[in-house]
Design brief:
Aspartate Aminotransferase, domain 2, eight-stranded mixed β-sheet, TyrNic_aminoTrfase, PyrdxlP-dep_Trfase_major, Aminotransferase_I/II_large, pyridoxal phosphate binding
Amino acid sequence: MESGGAGGEGETAGWRFGAANPALAVAGSQSIRAAVTRIYRCLDGSGDARPVAPLAHGDPSAFACFRAAPAATDAVAAAAASGKYNHYSPAVGIAPACSAVAAHLSRELPYAVSPADVVLTAGCNHAVEIMMSVLASPGANVLLPRPGYPLYASRAALSGLEFRHFDLLPDSEWEVDLAGVEALADANTVAMVIVNPNNPCGCVYSRDHLAKIAETARKLGIMVISDEVYDHFAFGSKPFVPMGVFGDVAPVMTLGGISKRWMVPGWRLGWIAATDPNGILRNKKIIDSVIDYRAISVDPVTFVQGALPDILAKTDDAFFTNALGVVKKAAEICYEKLKEIDCITCPHKPEGSMFVMAKLDLSSLDGIEDDVDFCSKLAKEESVVICPVQIVNIFLDTLFSLGHQISDDDDASTVLTIGSPPSRFLSVGLCIRR
């Protein structure tokens, strides 16, 4: 006899729960976090005195040379101490914060974004979750970039939303293959996603290319979801241009946040904004659906919302200039050092975000089966943790993150030097330490 619970004894019918959710198992196993965890398990803990080089993520706060701006930390401390923000927030976010985001975005657009078209989220990942859920109507599909950020595909799959991948072209500065987009789209396509500045390719799209993306979206009758969490993280020849500049051509949902530019991913504050002066997204009830989803999902921390107006308005330009300078220096070193490795080439010098893509020839390596095997052995033998391509949408074959170290005396040196290098395609993260 088994205990029946509630203080009594009796037979049970057998527990009706316990099987893993297969969809979650697949999505979770393909996440950046799961991949990095698997690679960390390969580290040799048997006396290697070298510090681990954690180069498989885009968290700048892990490195001492990147600290939050004093204006931002002061704003959060003041908001928390004020006692004004200990409450639940409205589904869209508190009004002053929504207004601050609208004003922040409007500065670079030929029209004003309404605060009513801004919804705050618990980071940009939450914004991705919301958009993939909102668009998941029966039969619908979305177009995602390859290489790209894997959360889009995972969230689409969990929501029952079909996704199709279009290519980014390495020989054309990782621009979108617009002919490929048109070939993939059909009557059920509702949106295409772009990431600009781009993770993981390290490119920044020109105004001309963004205009062509908008024209393609209008031709197909779809919205553009523009992931701009790295907005203004551009340090090459092309300035950052928000996709919303072309919102009058095709409706744009802009995703953003403070995690990257302000170096505070742990504060978990992002946004979704309809940069759509023609009001198409509101008329089609997309904004309503976003708000409905927010009503049943987690809120961004209220006191961080309360601090947001001061974070956006009072952070000194020198803070951003310094951060970009450090990343630019790392990018230049990375690009030059990779050129010294026989079997590695970079199709395009990094110009934005914290990553660069390079080409790796695995045929030149003995005993390496694939990208996961390479990353696992690199962790074990060199204490360098990088992320395999299979997590970043399997573009060609191998994609990983490298990093660079800026020493205290500002003499920059690479963390990793590959003597007899691997090869195929890989993403090199410009994570920095000091």
